[in-house]
Design goal:
The structure holds two protein chains of two kinds.
Chain A (H helix, E strand, L loop, with lengths): L1 H12 L12 H25 L10 H12 L2 H34 L1 H14 L8 H8 L3 H25 L3 H9 L4 H12 L1 H25 L5 H10 L3 H36 L1
Helix pairs in contact in A: 3-12, 4-5, 4-7, 4-10, 4-11, 6-7, 7-10, 8-9, 10-11, 10-12, 11-12
Chain B lengths: L1 H30 L11 H14 L2 H32 L1 H16 L6 H8 L3 H25 L3 H9 L4 H39 L4 H10 L3 H29 L4
Helix pairs in contact in B: 2-10, 3-4, 3-6, 3-8, 4-6, 5-6, 6-8, 7-8, 8-9, 8-10, 9-10
Chain lengths: 276, 254
């Protein structure tokens, strides 16, 4: 009885702080971000200066920023960046073109989708880097094997996204095209491709991420040029500040590329909804 | 009924027949000398070398090692990711500020930082586990937050009208409601973890299945390399299908 009263009293006074809340203002959001970044930097610097960990493993932020500065004025950095950028761009061009082609075929035809899409779907989440030995045998140790591996990586993402986009096209648009007696080419160019550009661009954005990762990893494994190769060179000299600096620059560049295509995707999404 | 069966069975049979036909054509081209056998081995040789790599390369032990690393790293993604996801849902300003950053981390080439982890943890399974856990953390956090945020308002209102405490609200309403999406996070995160574990094993030539492919490639054992790659792909597909089945089993019945 006493226990029941106790629970009753507790329940009567209890309130919950869970539940939907409004978004905070952008200024407050930025202030939290700044506070978080400054806190993380202070913690890093504190650990670095405390001697708790080896200074070489956790170098001072000052050393890392100085190393980043040295990298950014080093011509070798730009030469390696150019190679990696070329590999990623070529991977994306080949992989995305093949992926869009396959995605349109799978999305437009139910028979093809049932016959082949399960293979694309289940092969998509496999670790692509394990195909690198095969790519070396087929394309050699140069840039071509990295491009081939990058293209293979982004193919699956783009194909699945395009197929889903193709199936998601509003049937009204297709009927309008048929009413106007549009040719297959006109249907593809005037209706299907514009209607599914948001999922296609989203697939390309995800494909870019996998192409960057795969190309860089392949460079760390076997290469004599590119940012992955540069990472391993710096690692072999145990120059930890430069290693952190280079990784920070690579992460920033990858993030910028991703954000750029993300903006395009958002724009395409808005355009599609406006037109529909 | 029969037409429904044939409308599904014929495409599936076509898919299988295409693959079998492609391998048969490849075998023929290789035997005719059109494709260089020093670059692509005979599919029949690859098939025959499965038994050899299982017997001589200790594939089962290597699979166990890889599975151990995947499960430990995956366990840590749940242990760390779910509380962070819940915290982000609980404190909305924190979520608004950090969600985009966490999504950016998910897309970042984190695995490139493996030399850093080699310095910190040495060339050991710990490096593989820590790196893979970090790789799998972002989807776990994001899906957990999404799961809590997707709780139907009517359930929250029922909890409030019963004057539930924070703890009761969490364990009786929010967590069960978010569980299907949390498991979607587990599926995504463990898929990332498997890719990372095999990738890092391959790159640093340590441990389980990733190392096996690396070793066979370095020995220029072409049929063995192709067989090992096929085996790893098969293991990945089985793992992915199992996670997907578990996820659909946890989804509410409609």
């Amino acid at each position: 009885m006493a226990a029941t009263q106790k629970i009753g009293r507790k329940s009567a006074t209890a309130t919950t702080s869970w539940g939907a809340k409004r978004r905070v203002s952008p200024r407050a959001t930025n202030a939290i971000r700044l506070g978080f970044a400054l806190g993380a930097m202070a913690l890093w610097e504190g650990v670095s200066r405390s001697g708790l960990l080896l200074h070489d493993v956790v170098p001072s932020l000052v050393d890392i920023v100085a190393a980043m500065g040295r990298l950014l004025v080093n011509p070798a950095f730009y030469a390696n960046l150019e190679i990696t950028a070329w590999e990623v761009a070529a991977s994306l061009a080949v992989g995305a073109a093949a992926g869009i082609f396959a995605g349109i075929a799978l999305g437009a035809n139910k028979f093809l989708s049932r016959a082949y899409e399960p293979y694309v779907y289940y092969l998509a989440p496999t670790p692509r880097i394990i195909f690198f030995p095969v790519m070396i045998m087929w394309f050699g140790v140069g840039v071509a094997s990295k491009i081939a591996l990058g293209a293979l990586s982004c193919f699956f993402t783009v194909a699945l996204s395009t197929a889903a986009g193709m199936r998601g096209i509003d049937p009204v648009l297709i009927r309008v095209g048929k009413t106007f007696r549009a040719t297959p080419w006109q249907m593809a160019v005037k209706i299907q491709l514009p209607a599914m550009r948001a999922p296609v661009l989203n697939g390309v954005r995800l494909g870019l991420g996998t192409a960057v990762i795969t190309a860089l990893l392949a460079e760390t494994k076997l290469s004599n040029q590119g940012l992955g190769f540069m990472t391993m060179q710096i690692y072999s000299h145990f120059d930890m500040a430069s290693l952190y600096g280079l990784l920070a620059i690579v992460f920033l560049l990858a993030g910028a590329g991703n954000m750029l295509i993300g903006r395009l995707t958002l724009g395409a999404g808005r355009g599609a909804s406006f037109e529909s | 009924m029969a037409s429904a069966f044939s409308s599904r069975a014929i495409p599936v049979a076509t898919g299988v027949a295409t693959i079998v036909g492609a391998f048969a054509a490849l075998e023929g081209l290789l035997r005719a000398g059109v494709i260089n056998r020093f670059v692509v081995p005979l599919p029949s040789e690859v098939l025959a070398s499965f038994g050899r790599i299982v017997a001589e390369e200790d594939v089962l032990e290597r699979t166990r090692e890889t599975a151990y690393e995947v499960f430990v790293a995956g366990f840590f993604t749940i242990l760390i990711g779910v509380p962070i996801g819940a915290a982000l849902y609980r404190w909305r300003p924190l979520r608004d500020a950090l969600e985009d950053w966490i999504a950016a981390v998910a897309a970042a080439p984190l695995v490139l930082a493996f030399p850093l982890f080699l310095v910190m943890f040495g060339r050991s399974p710990t490096t593989v586990i820590v790196m893979s856990a970090i790789t799998g953390l972002a989807p776990m956090i994001l899906k957990t937050t999404e799961g809590f945020a997707a709780t139907r308002p009517v359930l929250m209102n029922v909890g409030k009208s019963l004057k539930m405490t924070d703890g009761q609200m969490f364990w009786k309403i929010l967590f069960p409601s978010a569980l299907p999406l949390i498991f979607t996070g587990v599926r995504l995160s463990w898929t990332f973890v498997l890719i990372s574990v095999v990738g890092v094993e391959f790159l640093i030539n340590l441990g389980g299945l990733g190392q096996l492919i690396n070793e066979l490639a370095e020995r220029y054992d072409l049929p063995g390399t192709y067989a090992a790659i096929t085996f790893v792909v098969a293991v990945s597909v089985v793992f992915f299908v199992a996670l997907e089945r578990l996820e659909s089993w946890l989804q509410p019945r409609r």
